[in-house]
Structure formats: structure tokens, C-alpha cells
Write a structure and sequence with these properties.
2 copies of one chain form a homodimer. Chain A is globular and about 55 Å long. Chain A has 10 helices and no strands. Chain A starts with 9 loop residues before the first helix and ends with a helix. Chain A is mainly alpha-helical and 199 residues long. Chain A has helices at 10-33, 40-47, 51-57, 67-81, 89-96, 98-102, 108-120, 122-147, 157-179, 186-195. The A-B interface holds A 90, 122, 125-126, 129-130, 133, 147, 154-158, 160-162, 164-165, 167-169, 171-173, 175-177, 179-180, 184, 189-190, 192-194, 196-198 and B 90, 122, 125-126, 129-130, 133, 147, 154-158, 160-162, 164-165, 167-169, 171-173, 175-177, 179-180, 184, 189-190, 192-194, 196-198. Chain A binds a DNA duplex (30 and 30 nucleotides) through residues 10-11, 15, 39-41, 49-53, 55-56, 59-61.
Amino acid sequence: MNDTAKRPTLRQRTRQAMRDEVSAIATRLFAEQGCDNTTVEQIAAEAGLSRTTFFRYFGAKEDVVLTWLEDLGPALVAAFRARPGDEHPWTSLRRTFDLFTAMNADAPERSLSFMRMLQESPTMTARYAEKQQTWEDLLVPLVAERLAGDLPADRDPAPRALVASALACYNAAMQAWGAGEGTGSRDDLLDRAMNVLRD
Amino acid sequence: MNDTAKRPTLRQRTRQAMRDEVSAIATRLFAEQGCDNTTVEQIAAEAGLSRTTFFRYFGAKEDVVLTWLEDLGPALVAAFRARPGDEHPWTSLRRTFDLFTAMNADAPERSLSFMRMLQESPTMTARYAEKQQTWEDLLVPLVAERLAGDLPADRDPAPRALVASALACYNAAMQAWGAGEGTGSRDDLLDRAMNVLRD
DNA sequence: ACGCCAAGTGGTACTGGGTCCCACTTGAGG
DNA sequence: CCTCAAGTGGGACCCAGTACCACTTGGCGT
């Protein structure tokens, strides 16, 4: 029982494999016929499990293509922490987002189809925003201690304003990138988005 | 038939009255027992109409307390248009948001309970974000023509980055205001949030 | 005043996401 | 071999949202 921490046990590995496979199938279905036109029943049937079990793996239909976002939270925190403490938070946030732009840099079609999915499915957009909210909540305290504000932490809008704006810039950059069908560098677009706030 | 434009006809006025009354009842129920614990059936029963009719008035359960947001879109556009064309968009956006801070300035409890509702109901937050998205889409083209970018409009992330960040700042300010139980000036908080981006 | 049309209303049934519970299997360990 | 925990599937259930239908009602022209 205490060795489970050392290495992923069999059960955990099969569970992860299951998640990955279901996720792949769902991604394909969503791309083919749209997220909102795909039922959980269909995904479950295609993946060879029951509706019940599907919901044991994923809390909601949309999560099936968004789980990887959650795992990103700690990585974001680490990336931000790795930045020098006297750097301007805005710059640190920009550099933290290198995580995003680097990710899938070799397979832009994946990111593109993801953007398309977001564009055409409001419920997916909503879920996505929810995930980003968790990132925001993770980063806000880190920025807050950088600012060392005179106000009590949660009554100072500044840290949250910085983090939320940075994420908004990221989303704007990605949307512009998607509108251009993936032409142009995501880094350049993000730079432009985040620089226009400080010209 | 062509005089309907002149003055609201009887039907329209009763319709508006109905909306207002149902909205008031729903607001009370949401505050009392939480939004997610309140069913449409309950609202309908309490308001004396059928579930069917409820959905004819409001597209979704949450809309019952968010309809006033939609009507705000054109007002936002007008407020932004009223700003001088050579003003920095960020400043114009700040001034545009005076619409928000002025609204309910006399009845802060209303805004406070609204913030509480947002805090405890993720689905409400999602809907709210959706409404704000429509504001964003309205304002982005206005900012775009101010910037007169070198890129084709929808491939330049800058206008959307500005608008979305401004809204993010507004949300951060409101959240901080809610955390302080309404102490402090919303204008000051919003100023602080939007200035930290440009220190 | 009469009838007509449009708009509004309520009822019913249906889809689909999400939760809960129960019975069954299966795999790991004593 | 037995046991217990974890995982699985099935079914019932709740609720939001949609579609369709029959019915009423209010406004309007003749």
C-alpha cells in the first residue's frame, strides 16, 4: 500500500491507458461530427465501456478532451516559480506561457482542431474557461507575493487582474492564430497581444 | 403593425412586466437556497406559470437573473463611441466601464448578492462569462478601428487582447470588492486593477 | 357584433447529461 | 482457497432544454 507512491501500480497504469484511449476516440468523434452532436452513449459504445464507467473516468463529457489541462496547473506554477523574483510579473507570466506555445509545436493540427472545437461549441468553451480558472487561482497567490501589496491579499484586485489579463491575452492570441488557420508564430502573436497592454 | 415601433404595445409591456416579476422571484429563490438547488419547476410554480412558458421567456435557467446584461451591450458600444478617437483604447475602456460602476451604486447589496451567486454557482459563472463574451465581441471591432492595425482585423490579437483584458480587470476588481463585503470604492478598485497593467 | 388570425399558454413526451445505488466480477494478498 | 477492495454494468432517477399539440385570448377588419 505504501509502495504505490514509488511506482504506478498496475491498476493505475491500466486506468491511465483507458483514459488515453477513450480520450483519443472522443477527440475523433468530436472532430468528425461536432462535440454537441456526440452523445456520451456513443463515445462509451465506441470505446467499449458503459455510460456509467465513462462518468467514473471523466466528470463531464467535455472533460474527455480537457483533462490534460488540469495536469498542467502544477507545471505552470513551477514555471512561474522558476522566474527571477525581481522580474516584472507580466514578463514572468509571458515566459510561463512558453509552456503553452511549446506544447504541440510539432503538431499544430492538434491545436487547430482544438481551437475549432472551442469555436463551435459554447459548452466546451465554458468548460475550458473553468479549467483556466483553476490556473488563474493557482497563479494569483504567486503574483500577489511578488507585488507585496499594501492591501490584504484577497482584497487587492491587482494580482488577479494581472493573471486574468495574461490569460485573456493568451486566448486572444490563440484565437487570432486559429483565424489564420495556423499561419504565423504563436509566440509572435502572444508577444503582440501581451505587449499592446504595455506599449 | 408599423406603429409598434413608436411605443411599446400592450403585449410588449405585459411581457416585460412578466419578465421583471419572474426575475425578481427567481432572484429571491436563488439567494435563499442557492441557484443550483433551485429548479425551474419551482420558479415557475412560485411565479404562477408553466415550465414551458418559463423557457419561452428565458432561454436558460440562469438567464432569469442575467437578461439585464444583454441589453447592456448597445449601451457599452455607445459609451465607447462617445470617447474621443485619439484617446488610448485602454483609457476609453476604463471610462466605458463607468457604466458598470455607476449601475447599482445606490444599492450595493444587489451587486453583492450577485457576486455571491457567481462565487457559489459554477454554472452561473459560465453563463455570465458567455454574456461578457458578447460584450467583448461588440467592443473588439471598435478597438480594432482605433488601432488601425497593419494586420487583417481578425488575425490581429491586439484588439481582443485589450478588450478581454479590460473585462478581466473589471472582474478582478469586482471580485476583490465582493471579498471585502462591499467596502471600498468600486471605481478605485477598478482603477487599481487597470493601472497595474500599465504601471 | 361576428368571425378570423396571431400570439401566448399549458401539457405531454422526448433527448441527453449527470448522479445514485445495487449486484456482479476480478485481481491482489493473507 | 478465502477475503476484501476496486472496478464494472445496469437500471432508476433528477433536471435542463426542445418539440409538438391543442387550447385560449386579444386585436382587428368587415
